[in-house]
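Build the 3D complex.
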Amino acid sequence: MGSTPLPSTRPTRADAARNYDLLVTAAREAFAEHGTDTSLEEIARRAGVGIGTLYRRFPNRIALLEAVYIDEIQSVCDRAYGFAEKLEPFDALAAWLRSFVGYGVSKKSLAGELTAALGKDSPFFQSCKVNVQEAGQLLLDKAKASGDVRPELELMDIMRLVGGITMGRDMEPEEANRLLDIVLCGLRPARS
Amino acid sequence: MGSTPLPSTRPTRADAARNYDLLVTAAREAFAEHGTDTSLEEIARRAGVGIGTLYRRFPNRIALLEAVYIDEIQSVCDRAYGFAEKLEPFDALAAWLRSFVGYGVSKKSLAGELTAALGKDSPFFQSCKVNVQEAGQLLLDKAKASGDVRPELELMDIMRLVGGITMGRDMEPEEANRLLDIVLCGLRPARS
DNA sequence: TACAATACGGAGGCACCCTCCGCTTTATCA
DNA sequence: TGATAAAGCGGAGGGTGCCTCCGTATTGTA
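Done.
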């Protein structure tokens, strides 16, 4: 999450930075709890901040959604680097992919509203994609290097597969995990 | 909790029936022009009807969307039977499938809002599906009987393929038609 | 400490969804 | 045909949501 990245003439005031974080946190929690259509008034209330403060920071609803989404993307990337450090190559990749499944609900509706507003190929999504790809590529390359994943596989194909799993409506986490297991098996080289 | 003892249900009044049609027509046009989020006030205005009249007929926004959607499904089915009468079997099937492509824009957002509200497997969608399947099956069976389509093909697979074409974002009609041509070729029996 | 830049907060404008209820139109029946 | 009840009509207004504006409070600097 982190403070506002604004290297401008004067340093950001302490209260402003604090409120920024409060708002993004409140928004993320509210979206997870009550869905993407939570009112901005409710979010400002949760953050203990006036509605005017919210709107100075985020000129409209979409801007707030963007901030929360970027926050989520960041944590997806962070998880990748965390797993890469602590787990064996294949397990790290598996854990990362598994962490996608089930967290889809609020993120899916977030992504849905954002694509509706910005377009799927907007610069915003492009840049999110780049970051996730970079993190995923690290995991995949390590797993290939250790011989646990077939070298000819492409990251984007794997992510599309896993993305397809999370997109299924009314998908039980258990069912999704079974599908994911199949995909994970499919990544391994043929036994000799 | 008796059924009404009076058998004399009065017929729908002429003005009521007229206004119903006016509203559905206005809604369909407005959705096609300005998207699914057109306000109900705007639709009532277009239909030349008070907002109260709209709400008596359609207790909420979803009900109106349903009516328009059913209307579209009906016309999809009608087209199928029309083509079946006027065209050769394969051409009829092809024309019907082609009529899907390009009309996806407003229908897609309609279906999107409806699934969000009702669920993909709601009775409403089930019944829509049944009707479309019945119409499509007629076309497919005729095309199979005339030897223009391989007998082992399933209607649902074909419809999923074509549905997939229309789902692509930013798909040019021209591009969609090319993809459809490939699918249509794929339906024909292997040449001897 | 004093002052200017910056931030805060909520009242209020506008649009939308939906309800309520007094007035109008229609179908029926003597 | 004309009277009458049932059915339908329409729009004011309540509730809520998004967003703007501006007077007041806070913060960093000299």
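Confidence is low (pLDDT under 50) at residues 1-8 of chain B.
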